[in-house]
């Protein structure tokens, strides 16, 4: 809310039974990039309060299509009653302390995910450069988790990580010098790279989403954006 008045997305979230207005951010990403397909395995990092879980489950298709949505947050998150079914589960844990194997084991195949979403955000200090750097650090952790690299460089095999070949990532960042490095790091590792500032983002926010679509099976630094 802004100035004590519920804005359009807040009202729409209540009307459509989403737990937060942030649902419209992932809805827009999905509409433009279709990262979640029927039967997908989705990992949602920083899943509180659960709006992304709702949107992800909606895009899995009917239950007979299969798929799974796994939400991880440092605090306990209850699976929303609306828009979610038995394919959604949450884990209360610090993702930084979980092993790749442990996280992968919760996926539909037990081997990894077709979509990794990071909506993690640091406790903001109000100092723009500091907050952007902390946000980029969290984003980098999500990227390392996806690609299986302790350092994102050419010497690590591209078959590691918990993001399956052809899979996609969505990482929330705060705009700054540190966020711009994600394009360089991910070039050649995904078929397409995009930035998106969803319409549901508050005007005072510096949030922006980095999207990497279709992870390639072999690293190619000359891959087109």
From TrEMBL:
GO terms for molecular function: rRNA (uridine-2'-O-)-methyltransferase activity. The keyword Amino-acid biosynthesis does not apply. The active site is at residue 172. Coiled coil: none annotated. The keyword Transmembrane does not apply. Signal peptide: none annotated. Keywords: Methyltransferase, rRNA processing, S-adenosyl-L-methionine, Transferase. Residues 18-214 form the Ribosomal RNA methyltransferase FtsJ domain. SUPFAM superfamilies: S-adenosyl-L-methionine-dependent methyltransferases. Pfam families: FtsJ. It comes from the Eukaryota. GO terms for biological process: RNA methylation. Belongs to the class I-like SAM-binding methyltransferase superfamily. RNA methyltransferase RlmE family. This is rRNA methyltransferase 2, mitochondrial. It comes from Physcomitrium patens (Spreading-leaved earth moss). The lineage of its organism: Eukaryota, Viridiplantae, Streptophyta, Embryophyta, Bryophyta. The gene is LOC112274698.
């Amino acid at each position: 809310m802004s100035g004590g008045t519920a804005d359009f997305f807040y009202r729409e979230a209540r009307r459509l039974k989403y737990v937060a207005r942030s649902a419209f951010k992932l809805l827009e990403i999905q509409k433009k990039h279709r990262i979640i397909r029927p039967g997908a395995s989705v990992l949602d990092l920083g899943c509180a309060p659960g709006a992304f879980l709702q949107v992800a489950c909606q895009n899995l298709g009917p239950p007979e299509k299969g798929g799974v949505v796994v939400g991880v947050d440092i605090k306990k998150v209850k699976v929303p009653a609306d828009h979610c079914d038995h394919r959604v589960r949450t884990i209360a844990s610090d993702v930084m302390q979980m092993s790749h194997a442990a996280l992968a084991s919760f996926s539909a195949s037990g081997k990894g995910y077709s979509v990794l979403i990071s909506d993690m955000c640091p406790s903001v200090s109000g100092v723009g450069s500091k907050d952007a750097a902390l946000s980029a650090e969290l984003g980098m952790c999500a990227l390392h988790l996806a690609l299986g690299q302790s350092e994102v460089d050419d010497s690590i095999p591209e078959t590691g990580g918990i993001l399956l070949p052809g899979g996609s990532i969505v990482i929330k960042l705060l705009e700054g010098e540190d966020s711009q490095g994600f394009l360089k790091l991910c070039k050649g590792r995904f078929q397409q790279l995009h930035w998106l500032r969803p319409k549901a983002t508050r005007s005072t926010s510096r949030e922006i989403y980095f999207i990497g679509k279709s992870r390639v099976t072999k690293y190619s630094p000359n891959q087109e954006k």
